[in-house]
Specification:
About 60% of the residues lie in helices and about 0% in strands. It has about 180 residues and is mostly helical.
Length: about 180
């Protein structure tokens, strides 16, 4: 009798598990996968980083607008979008930021530019959130940087929380989808 109960419990657990969606995958979706894969490869970024930024910035809401006016999936400020058009070589009006393909392309282009400029993911994410002007100021201040290249402290609490969130999301995406390995 006990063996039958254990067998039945095992069958019920297996059946439930096989039809129950993975909660982690629902919490950490990979919406716009073909666009993310293409643009991450184009700009030599890890997909997990792109997904982490999208999740932190807009939680995959293509219509998102922040209280300061950042727009779209990757929450780019219109001024930054216009500036990035000279780097990407394409011209759009600001409403294009609501298009997932445009938002992801320009967000990836900006991430690549910042990573190339600073050579440090934490500093690049600070610049993505707080702007390059703030980061330049922090890097030149011994209260925040010992070497002018990395930050020992982030003076904006919002930016510090943002960086921690993105790095945690990135790690979680890597664990769920890439077996804990860094990805393309």
């Amino acid at each position: 009798m006990l063996a039958a109960v254990v067998l039945l419990a095992g069958f019920v657990w297996f059946a439930f598990r096989s039809v129950q969606p993975d909660v982690m995958e629902l919490s950490y979706p990979r919406k716009y996968k073909s666009i993310v894969t293409e643009q991450a490869a184009e700009y030599d970024l890890e997909e997990s980083l792109v997904y982490a930024v999208i999740k932190a910035e807009s939680n995959f809401d293509a219509e998102a607008v922040s209280s300061v006016g950042a727009v779209g999936l990757m929450q780019m400020m219109p001024e930054t979008f216009y500036w990035m058009q000279t780097h990407v070589g394409e011209t759009y009006d600001e409403s294009a930021l609501y298009e997932p393909e445009v938002s992801i392309r320009f967000g990836c282009a900006l991430l690549r530019l910042l990573l190339s400029e600073y050579g440090d993911l934490t500093v690049a994410l600070c610049a993505y959130n707080a702007g390059m002007g703030n980061v330049a100021s922090w890097l030149s201040d011994s209260a925040y940087s010992d070497d002018g290249k990395t930050l020992k402290a982030i003076p904006f609490g919002e930016t510090e929380a943002y960086v921690q969130k993105v790095l945690q999301y990135k790690e979680t995406y890597e664990e769920i989808y890439y077996g804990g390995m860094k990805n393309g």
